[in-house]
Design a protein that fits this description.
Strand order of the largest sheet: 1-2-3
Helix content: 55-70%
Strand content: 5-15%
Number of domains: 2
CATH class of the largest domain: Mainly Alpha
Radius of gyration: 25 Å
Shape: elongated
Number of helices: 8
Distance between the termini: 38 Å
CATH architecture of the largest domain: Up-down Bundle
CATH superfamily of the largest domain: Cation efflux protein transmembrane domain
Structural class: mainly alpha
């Protein structure tokens, strides 16, 4: 994973991944916040529902980015006697909160847009198109910042949101141009509703994923059958049961399991098997594995076995 560069650059300290992620989020937040302010002012001046719903959309993204940034900070907090895992789980709660905030926003702006669809009001198409064109630049530019680390859930959420925003901005530009030349003012509210459906679609999967992880479900990045097969097919393992896999944060997964190892193995050989398994699990996206050993002679006491 790590590339070693030879030559003159070994004098500089390479910025670590966390710093890059943090600066990415800060740049994204500042850019998008400035754009939200521009859209709100323009939306109120031009009376455009499409611009206001897009501003609501972008504000949701800013809130999401800010929550994610905050959760990364919390995830670094050292474990205590009360929070033995530290605050890693906050990354999952941030993703969940982000989804809930966006859904509330959709409801509020959606209601206003439906009212407007029935009673269209005049809007300035030209201004709408120019502001939305600026949005394509801001959103696509911000999305590319997150593209590098898109495997992490909050980064991925940011990337997906910002990319869908850029697509939405394209639609608003087209609507603005049509309104300018045809004066069909209902298009403004119609585009607003389309924008909201796009947000609903992208937010729904975020809500589902983050809820799953909050409930300690097996993360989507891990296939429990693959993990079970990996353990069962390891030499020396005669049985595996009582296996639990869950997410500790949006980037780290944990596993606990009971293993019955071959009784002919010595203690050292058994430790060797455990060590080998933990190494293999790391490659399969399980960062923290707790393995309890049992012998075939004394079966598991637990009723789940």
């Amino acid at each position: 994973m790590h590339h070693h560069h030879h030559g003159h650059d070994h004098h500089h300290h390479a910025p670590n991944a966390a710093d890059i992620v943090r600066s990415t989020f800060i740049i994204g937040i500042v850019l998008n916040m400035l754009y939200v302010i521009t859209e709100v002012i323009a939306g109120l001046m031009t009376n455009s529902m499409a611009l206001l719903s897009d501003a609501g959309h972008n504000l949701g993204d800013v809130a999401g980015l800010a929550l994610s940034l905050f959760s990364f900070k919390l995830a670094k907090v050292k474990p205590t006697n009360t929070y033995t895992y530290g605050y890693k789980k906050t990354t999952i709660l941030a993703a969940l909160a982000n989804a809930v905030i966006l859904l509330i926003g959709i409801g509020v702006i959606g209601y206003e847009s439906i009212v407007r669809l029935k009673h269209p009001e005049p809007v300035q198409g030209g201004v709408i198109a120019w502001i939305a064109a600026l949005g394509i630049l801001v959103n696509a530019g911000s999305a590319l910042l997150f593209f590098r680390n898109k495997n992490e859930m909050n980064n991925k959420a940011a990337y997906v949101h910002l990319m869908s925003d850029a697509v939405v901005s394209v639609a608003v530009v087209i609507a603005g141009i049509i309104i300018k030349y045809t004066h069909l003012y209902w298009i403004d509210a119609a585009i607003s509703i389309v924008v909201l459906l796009v947000i609903l679609y992208s937010t729904w999967s975020l809500l589902k994923d983050s809820l799953r992880l909050t409930m300690d479900a097996v993360p989507e990045s891990v296939d429990i059958d693959t993990i079970r097969a990996l353990i069962e097919n390891t030499e020396g393992v005669s049985d595996v049961h009582h296996m639990h896999i869950w997410a500790m944060s949006t980037t780290e997964n944990a596993l606990t399991t009971h293993l019955v190892l071959n009784d002919i193995l010595s203690f050292e050989e058994k430790m060797e098997v455990v060590h080998h398994l933990k190494h293999e699990l790391q490659h399969n996206n399980i960062q923290h594995a707790t393995i309890e050993l049992e012998s075939g002679a004394t079966p598991c006491e637990n009723e789940d076995c």
